[in-house]
Amino acid sequence: MNPKTLLSRRSLLRSTLAIGLSTTAGCSGAGSPQRTETDSRVRTAPVVQRIAYESAEMVVTLREAHDVSQLNLIAPDGSLFAQTPVATGATSARIQILDIKPGIGGYEHYEPGRYELVAIQESGSQSITLELRPNVQIVDIRQYLEGEKAVDLGNLVITVENIGTAPTWIYDITYREAPNTAVNRPLVEGAGVPQITVPKSAENLILAPHQKRRYVGSTSPLLLANQKRQNCNESVSMDVIVGVAAGAPLQERIVVMFGGEAHSAGLLGEYVCSDISVVVTENSNLESSKQRKRGAL
Fold first, then answer.
1. Residue 14 pLDDT > 80, yes or no?
2. Which of 16, 85, 119, 120 is 20 to 30 A from 249 (CA-CA)?
3. Tens of pLDDT along 40-77?
4. Out of the domains of life, which is the source (predicted)?
5. What is the per-residue DSSP string for 57-72?
């Protein structure tokens, strides 16, 4: 990513990560960012007070009465990843670390790893070590009940949690062995073309650290085609596959139990069932999700 300056504020997701810094240069507790100074003879309070993430940006809060003029974010390979100037008197600055460009299919994503945030001051510089590493996991799978059309009952809503230290995004949901065979496809190539129905905006796809978000894919895996061969009194096993912008895809094996009433959902006789249960078979951390029957459509 080219160095960028991004000073505009957005009313987006907020997830904060408190930064505890030692008062001695180069010393810190286990798991805490480390601070260094260019002049070890001067012992000053840490200039960086807090790191937060707002959607695609890292938000750096500085102490009052600082003399920082610029922030540099150094990549694990030692190269400059991004930088931003700090306005005189300002106590916060923003560094963009993600960029989704759905219109052209492009995107920018930091390489997960250990970064150095360097505060350039008139008196020298201070730096802290940051671990930018998302860690996402599926925490719930259930029938999608909030749609506006009958066909939406044939979709699933996947809840994903980021237990890592930096943001990323979900860009696609697909399936293997789903009863609607048309949706059994590989993940799309490239994370810059999201195939997600909910949330709709690219910015809201981003999953901040310590945040859970619900995602609905663009296809309906539980849309049934023939009531003579597929009905609302059977069960099927299938795989749910979730594409993550950084790292390997997530995958869960589930058992879907159809129930309730059949509702017409297509021009060619397709239909959906109003009451569907989902049981995850390979992850004890996920509990089965039993959905109550939806009211009349």
1. no
2. 16
3. 334 457 999 999 999 999 999 999 999 999 999 999 99
4. Archaea
5. EEEEEE-TT--EEEEE
Query: In this structure, are residues 142 and 156 in contact, taking their beta carbons and an 8 Å threshold?
Result: yes
Q: Which two tokens stand for residue 243?
A: 């594409």
41: Cβ–Cβ under 8 A, 6 or more apart, which residues? none
Question: Distance (Å, rounded) from C-alpha 77 to C-alpha 93?
Answer: 24
Specify the range with the lowest mean pLDDT, choosing from 11-20, 53-62, 105-114: 11-20
Q: Which two tokens stand for residue 56?
A: 């695609």
| pTM score | 0.80
Q: What is the DSSP string of 92-154?
A: EEEEE-EEEETTTTEEEEPPSEEEEEEEEETTEEEEEEEEE---EEEEEEEE----SSGGGGG
Q: Report which secondary-structure segment, H or E, holds 270.
A: none
Asked if 203 and 131 count as a contact pair (C-beta separation under 8 A), the reply is no
Cα torsion through 11, 17, 20, 21, rounded to 10: -70
C-beta of residue 246 within 8 angstroms of C-beta of residue 203: no
Alpha-carbon distance of 53 to 46, in angstroms, equals: 20
In tens, the pLDDT along 150-159 reads 999 999 999 9
**Overall residue count recorded for the chain in this entry:** 297
Distance CA 191, CA 186 (A): 13
Backbone angles phi, psi at 175, to 5 degrees: -145, 160
- Tell me the CA distances in angstroms from 162 to 103, 152, 192, 203, one per residue in order: 26, 26, 19, 16
Which CATH number fits the domain 15-132, given the four candidates 3.40.710.10, 2.60.40.3080, 3.40.50.10540, 1.10.10.10? Answer: 2.60.40.3080
> Both ends of the chain: CA-CA distance in Å?
48
